[in-house]
Amino acid sequence: MINDSAERIFRGGTILTMDDARPRVEAVAIGGGRILAVGDEAEVMSTRGDDTEVVELDGHTLMPSFIDAHGHFANAPQIIKWANVSGLPAGPVTCIADIQRVLAEFVAANSVSAGNWVLGYGYDVSNLSDGRQCTRDDLDAVLPDHPVMLIHSSNHGAVLNSKGFAAMGYDASTPTPPGGLILRTPGGNEPEGLIMETAFVPIFADLPQPSEQELLDTFDAAQQLYASKGTTTVQEGATHAKDLSLIRTAADQGRLYLDVVAVPLVLEVPKLVKEYFPDFTGGPMELPDRAAESFGTYRNRLKLQGIKCVVDGSPQGKTAFWTEPLLTPGPNGEADWCGQPVFPEELIQKMVKEIADAGIQIFCHCNGDAAIDVMIDACRAAGMTAGDDRRTVIIHSQFMRPDQLDDYVELGLSPSFFTVHAYFWGDLHKENLGQRRAYFLSPMASAVKAGLRCSNHNDFSVTPIDPMRMVWSAVARTSRSGEVMGPNERVEPWQALKALTIEAAWQIREEDSKGTLAEGKLADVVILDGDPTSVPTDRILDIAVVQTFKEGRSVYCA
Ligand SMILES: [Zn+2]
Q: Domain named Amidohydrolase: which ranges (predicted)?
């Protein structure tokens, strides 16, 4: 029966199914884009036909490919054309002089002529040995004739130079908007360089864009960023209308070979609604009656999965919202700084209720415990319970309190953690928040113990796409200085891998087709050159991707 015979059979290595009931098997057969058989070698070999390729894993490890639980795919086509001013190991920067060098080299290498924007990504003062923010003067010193914008690693702010501020119309008379931050020159009122949150959002939206064709031409390279790391389902986790339009065009032109899950940003929903539902009626979000029908189904590898809400900012930027003050001054030198929500609580309550009533899944960004309280109250006011199976995802949930785990269980909230923070910013969090709060960052072990399903994410481009660093950080929780940021919250590698596979699949309602190796599921698999569940913890970071398959088709080969 030629139709039933496998295209490929994998054998001869470690095979992790990510299924708790049967973690390891001897062989897997795939065909027609799906998994045909999983189990003992003899049993799986029965699917072998004349044309079946038997792939000897040769000691390598096969497992389900990774699912991006939260990140910003729309940044990928752009970032390929930006300067990397991230700190080690995500980039080359340790001080302001490094930033200056990177920018000068970037302008030379790309022949960017004066007057054209130079964009950088990954800026973060905590990577700088100078002990101060990079300023407009630092950037003017090297690029006086180009407008420059260095996007903050949180994607919630940027540093601009003089030409950049002039291009955006920011000067001494520009008021700081509510919920925003504009650092001013000492003794003056000129913007000094760093702007954050609501002061940043409009200028980011106003950035001159590459042409659609230029962006579409980067889609192959953009998807390779993920495929080369074993990731075959990617997320655009705060989709703007213009990004959705671009990704739809790429999808319609057949340029997507990975699955893209888009989660439109709440502020953009009215715009999207106007585009797709001209006859809408509804509340403050203007959701039409049948809005939910647009969600949950792939078309040409793109689907809308839910609506993204945002309650607060970033902890490393000190713009998250906590109940207890920081131990260090706020971003403007404030004493007893607790941060602040991005929107008034009343508006968040209205948004959550309207989205929930429309039957659409919510993905809500909350970093600080006060932000999480706002969301918990909003979910309770909207009448949510765990029994509804809404799978409301609380993105980051980084500085939740232990008592909030009970609320998550009661309301059916599911955390998507950000454990690489322990490495990148763990030392800083301890300094700002103290040991008790820093040690409970992204508390995966406690969440699992409470019975919650939780995923893990890189929040690309906040940190690079790097599943093995996610696994390592969930297992080791080691900071840059070598401190274990909360020994009690370390998890086993198996749990850390589940957070990138079956748990991430569940959060986007794809557990029936992805996340484990099981008969009938999609043949989305990755071959690694090591087994994360059996190597010593500090070797997990050395594990590399050998080959990635999306529905049985090789999409990356080392
Ligand atoms: Zn994000």
A: 53-556
Average pLDDT over residues 502-526: 98
What distance in angstroms lies between residue 71's CA and the mean position of ligand 1's atoms? 5
- How far does residue 396's CA lie from ligand 1's centre (Å)? 8
**Would you say residue 75 has pLDDT above 80?**
yes
- pLDDT at position 479 is 97
Ligand 1 centroid to 226 CA: how many Å?
16
Q: What is the mean pLDDT of residues 16-41?
A: 98
CA 80 / ligand 1 centre spacing (Å): 18
Rounded to an integer, the average pLDDT of 394-419 is: 98
Q: What would the mean pLDDT of 266-279 be, rounded to a whole number?
A: 63
Neighbours of 113 (CB within 10 A): 9
- 154 alpha carbon – ligand 1 mean position (Å): 8
pLDDT digits over 308-322, tens only?
999 999 998 899 999
Distance of CA 39 to the CA centre of its chain: 33
CATH of domain 2-65+521-557: 2.30.40.10
Domain-wise residue ranges, the chain:
2-65+521-557, 82-206, 215-507
Topology (CATH level 3) of domain 215-507: TIM Barrel (3.20.20)
Cα 316 to middle of ligand 1, angstroms = 14
Distance (Å, whole) CA 472 – CA 491: 10
> How many Å apart are CA 487 and CA 465, to the nearest integer?
25
- From ligand 1's centre to the CA of 230, what distance in Å? 20
Rounded distance, CA 325 to CA 343, Å? 19
Q: What is the distance in A from the centroid of ligand 1 to the CA of 393? A: 13
Residues with beta carbon < 5 A to ion ligand 1?
A: 459
**pLDDT at residue 527 tops 90:** yes
- List strand residue ranges (DSSP E) for 137-276, in order: 148-152, 157-160, 180-184, 191-197, 231-239, 259-264
Report how far ligand 1's centroid is from the alpha carbon of 426 (Å): 18
Tell me, in angstroms, the distance from the centre of ligand 1 to residue 398's CA: 12
Topology adopted by domain 82-206 = Diaminopimelate Epimerase; Chain A, domain 1 (3.10.310)
Task: Flag whether pLDDT at 461 surpasses 90.
Answer: no
pLDDT given at position 273: 58
72 Cα–ligand 1 center, Å: 6
Q: What is the whole-number distance in angstroms between the Cα of residue 437 and the centre of ligand 1?
A: 21
User: Going by C-beta distance under 8 Å and a sequence separation of 6 or more, which residues neighbour residue 152?
Assistant: 123, 124, 158, 159, 194, 196, 200, 314, 317
Query: Residue 31 C-alpha to ligand 1 middle, in angstroms?
Result: 35
Residue 1 has pLDDT above 80, yes or no: no
Span from the CA of 26 to the centroid of ligand 1 (angstroms) = 38
> Is the omega angle on the peptide bond into residue 89 within 30 degrees of 0, that is, cis?
yes
Is the per-residue pLDDT at 270 higher than 50?
yes
293 Cα–ligand 1 center, Å? 25
pLDDT at residue 2, rounded to an integer: 43
